[in-house]
Write a structure and sequence with these properties.
The complex is a heterodimer of chains A (248) and B (122). Helices cover 48% and strands 18% of the residues of chain A. With 248 residues, chain A is of the alpha+beta class. A five-stranded mixed sheet of chain A has the order 2-4-5-7-6. In chain A, helix 5 runs antiparallel to helix 7. The longest helix of chain A is centred in the first third of the chain and has 29 residues. Chain B has five helices and five strands; from the N terminus they run E-H-E-H-E-H-E-H-E-H. In chain B, helix 2 runs parallel beside helix 3. Classes of the chains: A alpha+beta (248), B alpha/beta (122). At the A-B interface, helix 1 and helix 2 of A face helix 1 and helix 3 of B.
């Protein structure tokens, strides 16, 4: 049986020739379609005469949150485009404090979706060496991703872990959503930082967020990765632990 | 009353679409992925029409279309694709999958889905 739909999907969206390595511009356009279409539908709803004041306020709040999320994508694309030309200062960063800042920044978005965030860390986590702005962007991107894939009512956990043997600190964003298939897992491991991939952790995304996070991490001499679980995934960034304690 | 199953992984868009469809008198139920859609069908809740997003969390719409075409009680359910990538599809190419209409999310008016449902259930 001829399968035009599957054929298209295989060729264009699953790592074939057309979208095999999307340019960031094309990937960004793809990523922004959904939020723009959603905001347009919300605007059309607001134009109706039968919208109650309560519904109007709720939709306006959702529009604000949706556009903020889309703007984070555009801001990351422009930032990534200037990575080679710009100088990014690396400094000791407290990962626990940064995670709590990210959690506060995203709290309204998570609350509006009926999800919550939490930070799991030690009282005195090791400092890591990072550019605070780039690391914040990585964590926001992973958290946005986790929000989309987590189940309503579930929590997303920001987890900090010292990897003593390698001298790195890992910050993971754990979601409780669909598990990654083995095929997707292999592709993800193989192609993580090559280019925006049409197929990656989850099928409906262009992979732009992960690609940009990888670029940001490399700028800070770190890397990103993913651990799959039966009930979700942990996307993480690993950066060098600060050595300043060794000078004391 | 016509039963509509909406398969859409964006909760806020689903909320808007359900409001429009319920306002037109349809009995609407919503799931966010293909697996949940099949679970609902397995439980005996067969819809009269399905409004289906393409780029879903987990399995894509096409995995679901293949499932639906595999069983005699689901193969004839009319499907309306509602997607941001409508430009990649043609109705004629997808007809054999039960897709009767394609609605472009990027340009649609809320009543376009209602019109599509009326057209495929007439």
């Amino acid at each position: 049986m001829h399968e035009p739909a599957r054929e298209w999907y295989t060729r264009d969206m699953s790592g074939g020739d057309t979208y095999d390595a999307l340019s960031p511009v094309v990937a960004a356009a793809h990523e922004l379609k959904a939020p723009l279409a959603l905001v347009r539908q919300m605007a059309l709803r607001l134009a109706d005469k039968d919208v109650s004041e309560t519904e109007r306020d709720r939709i306006l709040h959702q529009m604000t949150l949706t556009t903020e999320r889309a703007l984070r994508v555009t801001s990351n694309v422009t930032k990534a485009a200037r990575l080679e030309d710009a100088f990014f200062e690396l400094e000791p960063v407290n990962p626990g404090q940064l995670c709590r800042d990210v959690m506060s920044e995203l709290a309204p978005l998570f609350a509006a979706h009926g999800r919550s965030m939490s930070v799991k860390d030690r009282r005195h986590p090791l400092l890591l060496v990072a550019n605070r702005d780039l690391l914040r962007r990585i964590l926001l991107s992973f958290s946005d991703n986790a929000l989309h894939y987590s189940e309503p009512g579930s929590a997303v956990h920001l987890q900090i872990q010292a990897l003593k043997e390698s001298g790195m600190v890992r910050i993971g964003v754990r979601d409780y959503g669909p598990a990654l298939s083995s095929d997707m897992w292999r592709q993800l491991q193989k192609k993580l930082s090559v280019a925006p991939q049409a197929i990656h952790a989850r099928p409906e995304s262009s992979g732009l967020g992960l690609y940009i996070a990888s670029q940001f991490a490399q700028t800070m001499n770190g890397r990103v990765g993913v651990v799959r679980h039966r009930d979700g995934a942990t996307f993480y960034v690993e950066l060098h632990a600060s050595q300043q304690l060794s000078f004391l | 009353m016509t039963k509509v199953l909406l398969i859409e992984d964006d909760a806020w868009l689903a909320e808007l679409q359900m409001g429009v469809l319920a306002g037109e008198g349809y009995k609407v139920s919503h799931v966010k992925n293909a697996l949940d859609a099949m679970a609902r069908i397995e439980a005996g809740q067969l819809p009269d029409v399905m409004v289906l997003d393409v780029l879903l969390t987990g399995s894509t719409a096409f995995a679901l279309l293949h499932e639906l075409r595999s069983y005699p009680d689901t193969e004839a359910i009319p499907i309306i694709l509602c997607t941001t990538i409508a430009e990649h599809f043609s109705s004629s190419a997808l007809k054999e999958y039960g897709v009767r209409r394609i609605v472009d999310k990027t340009t649609m008016h809320p009543n376009d889905v209602v019109a599509a449902i009326k057209a495929v259930t007439a």
